[in-house]
Amino acid sequence: MLFEVRAKSDMTSTKPTVAHPVQPDITQLVYRPLQTATHIRVLILEPGKSGDPLRGRLRHVNLEPPRQRSYTWPALYPGLQSKVRSLFMAKDQGYEALSYVWGNPMSDRFIYCPKGKIAIAPNLGEALVHVRRTDRTRVLWVDAICIDQANVQERSHQVSIMGSIYAKAQHVLVWLGPDPRKVAMSTFDALRSLVQPPYLNVSDELVRPHMEEIAKSEWFTRLWVVQELFMAKRAIAVWGYAQINFIYLHAPWSKWLLDPKFQGPRWCARKAWGFQTAIRFTGALHCSDPLDRIYALLALSRNDPVTFRDKIGQLVPDYTKSPSQLFFEVACIFVESGNTQQLLSHVNHERTASANLKLPSWVPNWGEWTQHEPLLALDMGRGAAVGLENDGAIIDHEQCILKLVGIAVDQVTHSTAHDLLLPDIPSGIKNIVAFWAEHVEAPKASTNLDNAIGGSSKQISFLQSLLYVKSIDASLDDVELLASELFAPLGPIADIMPVLSTTPQAKEMLKSLAVSVRDHCRSRGDLNTEESSGRNHWRHRKLFITSNGHIGLGPSALRRGDKLAIISGLKSSVIIRKTEVYYTFVGTSYAPSISNGEVIQDYHSGNGKIETFELH
Fold it and tell me: Is the distance from CB of 193 to CB of 73 less than 8 angstroms?
C-alpha cells in the first residue's frame, strides 16, 4: 500500500480542536468521562450582563435516553404517559447547538466553571456574550467547550456523532459575528418586511444590498458549518444582538442561484445535500485539516442512495490517518458502490500540493482548497450505448490500481495555450479566439467530422464545449447575446464588449458562430432553451481537439498524445495518458461529437476496440 499512518505529533488542528494555553490539571478538573457512546456534554450558560465574565457548568446528557419502564396508566389520565415522557426528553435533550467560526485559535478569554476555567478563542467569546441571556440560563452545545480536546479518542468519537448532535438540537444558532456598525437589526427588519411567504416573492433590487452585507461574514466560508446548517431542524442567524430565522436568508439566495450576477454563498442557497453532492460543491470552503474535507460532511450521507450510505457510514473519524490513506478509502467506497463517475469527476491534477500526497492518479486530492467544479455528465452514457452498460470498475487494493473497460476513441493533438479562466478579460478572449482561428475556422482544420452533422459541426461542437451544453438555443444567433453567454465566466457583459470591439478576430468569430447557430437550428429544429450547467466549468480546464477533429472541454493537465476514451458505466468521456507500462487518469471531459453518436457508429461498424485500462 502507498499509505502510512501519520503520528499524532504530525496532526494539524481540526474543527473539534483548538490550540490554547490550558493547564492540564484545570482540564482534568472540568471534564468527567462520558458514560456511553451516545452521551454528550452541554454547557449551562449562566445569565449575565454586558461586561460580566462568562460563567457556566457542564452537564452530561444522553442523545438516546433509555426507554422508560412500561406502566399501565389509569384511563382517567389518557395523556399523562406522553406528557411524562416529554418532560424526561426535554430535560435530557433541551439544548441549542452553536455554529460559528473558530477564527484566531489563541485564547484571550475564559469561561468559568465551578471546578475550573476553560480558555476559549476570541470569536467564541464574542458569540457566547451575545447569545447569553440576562435573566435565565441557556443550554448550549459548543464543540470547543463540550468536547474534551485533550482526549483524542473522545474527540474522534464526538466528531462521528456531530451530525446527530446538530440534528437533535432544538435550534442551531448561526453566529455571523459582531455588529460594530449597528446595522444588523435594521437589516434583519428589512428582510422580514421584504421576504414574505412563500419566500420567492423577493424584490431583488431592494433585498440584494442587505444580502450582500450579510454574506461578508466569514461564517459562509467555512466547511464545518455546511452539515451544521443542513442538519438543523431550525436555524437562527445571530448577528450581534439581532436574530432572524435563517429561511429569510435562504429564500433570496435560492432564487438567485442560477443568476450569473449572484456573488453570494452558493452552497448556502441550495437545499440539503448528500455527501456525494456536498463534497463536489464545497471545495472552496475552508477547514484547517485536510481530513475534515471528509469528516465534516459524513453526517450528510443520510441523504445519499442506500448502497453508498451504508458503506460511507462505516467510516469512523480517525485523526491518526494520513490524508492519502483516507482519500483512498473514500475513493474505494465511491467505486464499490457504483459511483465511479462521481469519483473521477472530482480528480483535478492542477492543485498545487497534489505532488505532496502519494495518491494514485484516479484518487482525488480532496484535501486542498479549490474552486474547481466537477463536470456533470452531459455525454449521456455513451459507454452504455456501445454495450458497456455496467460500472465494471475493479480495484486492486494492494497495488492501488483501478481497472476500467472502454474504448480509446482518439488522440489529443492540440489545446488552448492556457486555462480558459484567465485573470484578465483580454487574455481570456484572445486565448479562445486563437484556438478557434487555428483549429475550427482555418481550412487546414477541416476533417471528416464536418460531414457528420453538416458543415458547421465543428463550430457547434466548439460552442457546445465552451457553453457546456448539449443543445444550442436558437436565440444565440444574436451576436451580442452570444457574446454575453459565451464569455460570461470571464466577467459581466459591460466589461466584455469594450474588449470585443477592439479585437477584430473576436468579432469575426462571433459572427461566424452566430451563422452556424442559425444553420444548425434550422436544420435540426433545436429551438429549446438550455441553461448553462454552471459558471465555474472553465476553471482548471482547456479546449482540445483530437486527430479526427473531436472538439471538447478537458482538464488543464491534458497534453498532446493523451487519449480521449469512453468507459463502461460512465456518462462522460475521459482523458487518459499511456506510459510505457500503464495508464494514468488525467480527468473527465466533455466532447459533444461523441455525445452525438459518431463513436457508437464506429463501434458497431467494427472500428472500435474494447480494452481494459489499468489506471495507476
Answer: no
Residue 466 CA: distances (Å) to CA of 304, 416, 511, 534: 31, 12, 16, 11
Position 175, amino acid: W
For residues 262 and 542, give the distance between their C-alpha atoms in angstroms, rounded to a whole number.
25
Mean pLDDT by 10 residues, the chain (616 residues): 40 40 45 91 93 93 71 51 46 81 80 88 94 95 91 88 93 94 91 72 73 88 92 94 90 68 70 84 86 92 90 89 94 93 86 66 85 63 48 87 91 94 90 93 54 61 87 80 86 86 89 85 55 65 93 92 90 90 92 68 64 92
Residues 6+ away with beta carbon under 8 Å from 224: 15, 287, 292, 296
Cβ atoms 575, 590 nearer than 8 A: no
For the chain, give the number of residues. Answer: 616
> CB under 8 Å to 601, separation ≥6 — which residues?
none
- Integer Cα distance of 270 and 470 in angstroms: 24
Bridge partners for 242 per DSSP: 239
Contact 440, 462 (CB under 8 A): yes
The label of the residue with cell 458549518 reads 225
Answer for the pair 21, 47: CB distance below 8 angstroms, yes or no: no
- Alpha-carbon distance of 184 to 240, in angstroms, equals 7
Three-state secondary structure call for residue 282: coil
Buried b (16+ CB within 10 A) or exposed e, 256-289: beeeeebebbbbbbbeebbbbbbbbbbbbbebbb
Model confidence, pTM:
0.82
Which ranges constitute the DSSP H helices of 94-161?
A: 122-131, 143-146, 152-160
Q: How far is CA 304 from CA 274, 275, 427, 569, in A?
A: 5, 7, 41, 19
Nearest residue to 167 (alpha-carbon basis) of 111, 211, 116, 231: 231
Q: What is the distance between the alpha carbons of residues 283 and 293, in angstroms, rounded to a whole number? A: 8
Q: What number of CA atoms fall less than 13 Å from residue 491's CA on the CB side?
A: 15
C-alpha cell at 551: 472538439
Contact at 8 Å (CB) between 93 and 168? yes
User: Residue 275: what are its φ and ψ, rounded to 5°?
Assistant: -60, -45
- Do the strands 172-177 and 96-99 form a parallel or antiparallel pair, or are they unpaired? parallel
